[in-house]
Amino acid sequence: MLEIKNLFVEYPDKTSVVNDFSLTVKDGESVALVGANGAGKTSLIMALVGILPSKGEVIADEITLSKNTENDIRQKIGVVFQNPDDQLFMPTIYDDIAFGPRNMGLDEETVKRRVNDSLSRLNIAHLAEKTPLKMSGGEKRMAAIATVLAMRSPIMLMDEPTAYLDPRARRSLIRTVNSFPHTRLIATHDLLFAAETCDRTVLIKNGAVLADGKSENLLYDEKLMEDCGVEAIGVYDRGVKL
Amino acid sequence: MADMRAKMSELYSLEQLSSQKSSIHALHPLSKIIATLTYIICVVSLDGYSFSQLAPFVFYPVIVIALADIPYSMIWRRALVALPFCAFAGLSNVIFVRETAFYIGSLPVSFGAISFFTIIFRTLLCVSAVLILVAVTPFAQLTAQLRRMHVPQMLISVFEMTYRYIGTLVNEAYSMSTAYKLRAGDKKGVQMKDMGSFAGQLLLRSFDRAERVYAAMKCRGYAMRDALLKPLPLKKNDYIFTAAVCLSCVLFRAVDVQQMLTDVLGRMM
Questions:
Q1: What is the pLDDT of residue B228?
Q2: B62 and B152 fall within a common domain
Q3: What's the confidence (pLDDT) of residue A239?
Q4: Residue A103 is nearest to which of B171, B215, B224, comparing CB atoms?
Q5: Which residues of A touch B (CB under 8 A)?
Q6: Helix B236-254 / helix B59-68 crossing angle, nearest 10 deg
Q7: A29 vs A40, A118, A142, A214, CA distance in Å?
Q8: What separation in angstroms does the CA of B29 have from each of A23, A50, B144, B241?
Q9: For residue B264, is it within any domain?
């Protein structure tokens, strides 16, 4: 379970990016965090794992975020970054996926098992020895997700997971994400993706919750979505199965 | 710039070798670091004209590369990158130290030339030793061992970040130069007048990128590694390897083996 209570995030120049944000995501629940560019989605995600300093309370699987528990909470919450290039920095995909488990102090046999398990779960075993420099956007995205899967964190945060993906890779990502048992918070402004992967949607505007409800209700509410700064799923898209 | 990306991929390919399995790969990182340091100290401490005394030091890279099953070309090709720098450093000796040391047939060989070749040979040996260390020791084990040896944390972090940062820097430079080229008409490369803003932007962008990469590293437990990485125990093979390399290096440093062999052969003849 992920609980966020009255969270505030400020940049060093005192610009407020997250304002009194509260949210509870139940175990196994998949929640879309929808908002326009600059609404505070990425800042919120970074604050939840202690990368950005914040005020308020973040509790992940009964661990409360503090300076002393940052490392523990990062084992509970895995983050898939918006740009997979930021997440892939090792010479090979194998090493990249092994980076987290190795940092957890696991023995090499367990690391290998976890890496292979993550690779096969995402059907990218053939990428193991490849360098990220020579991979497509879709491959990099899958590899970035594999790096988080190998951490075996029960909670997964995804920041704009469909960025840089072509329609086919996007479709494959939807299938993959739907197969995860994780508690998920997915920041996106790809509403169709949100509709296909999350039952619940939270709209964020100026760093605060604007609305919270069922995806099928919120994502089609043109007035609300316009207020949020994004375009509602149009009549044309209504055929998409929720 | 595309060539630079290929070079980056080549640089990382050396690190990929570190996951191979061989008797050298299996050694404790501490014994490999001590052996490499002793080797480098012995090679560097020889005087500038001891060209012949360097010859036995070739054994170390040759034997270790063979045992570790690393392609020789991978090490030598990379070691050659240092060649222009050391050649430039040794060039002044050729020009200024012209006193004749000996003759090859009727061709005089100056002390300057001996010093020049000694500098080149020495540099290639030392660079090879470091490259071999990287090729036979996983990067994480190497830095963890340096931490255990109480090398300042700041120095190791800079080392780690620089190593990872080179890739992001090259990627940023590649994207920027591509964008520049597409709008630069028939101009080749970045023009001098644009160089200032190009370099400045590159620096800012790569700082920003490095921040994000560092955040991704922290999200996957980079900060907790120190506390969790357990030191491996030293085994009999580690002691044997370290002792063999260190004693041989000290012997080759203290005794001119080649001169000794020449003397012995001379007496026998």
A1: 54
A2: no
A3: 53
A4: B224
A5: 46, 49, 51, 70-71, 74-75, 78-79, 81, 83, 85-87, 89-92, 94-95, 99-100, 102-105, 129, 131, 133-134, 147-148, 151
A6: 160
A7: 21, 21, 21, 12
A8: 47, 33, 9, 11
A9: no
Nearest chain A Cα distance for residue B213, angstroms: 5
- The alpha carbon of residue B224 is apart from the nearest alpha carbon of chain A, in Å, by 6
B46 and B126 housed in the same domain: yes
**Three-state SS at B92:** helix
Tokens at residue B247, please?
């004693």
How many Å apart are CA A182 and CA A197, to the nearest integer?
Answer: 12
Task: Choose from A90, A96, A108, A111 for mutation: most chain B CBs within 10 A.
Answer: A90
Q: Which residues of chain B have pLDDT under 50?
A: none
Counting Cα atoms < 13 Å in the Cβ hemisphere of A138 gives 14
- ipTM of the predicted structure? 0.76
Q: Which residues of A touch B224 (CB under 8 A)?
A: 71, 74, 103-104
How does B4-41 read in b/e, with b if 16+ C-beta sit within 10 Å? ebeebbebbebbbbbeeeeebbebbbbbbbbbbebbbe
**A44: closest CA of chain B, how far (Å):** 14
As a whole number of angstroms, the distance between CA B80 and CA B121 comes to 11
Q: Which CATH superfamily is domain A2-234 in?
A: P-loop containing nucleotide triphosphate hydrolases (3.40.50.300)
Chain A residues with CB under 8 Å of B222 CB are: 103
Distance CA A106, CA A112 (A): 10
Residue B224 confidence (pLDDT): 61
Residue B112 CB partners (closer than 8 Å, separation 6+): B93, B94, B95, B96, B97, B98, B99
Q: How many domains does chain B have?
A: 2
pLDDT in tens, B99-111: 887 888 888 888 8
Residues B147 and B206 in one domain: yes
Rounded to whole angstroms, the Cα distance separating A146 from B97 reads 61
In chain A, what residues touch B209 (CB-CB under 8 Å)? 86
Instruction: Please indicate, yes or no, if residue B263 is contained in any of the structural domains.
Output: no
Same domain, B133 and B147: no
Domain that includes residue B108, residue range: 19-137+232-257
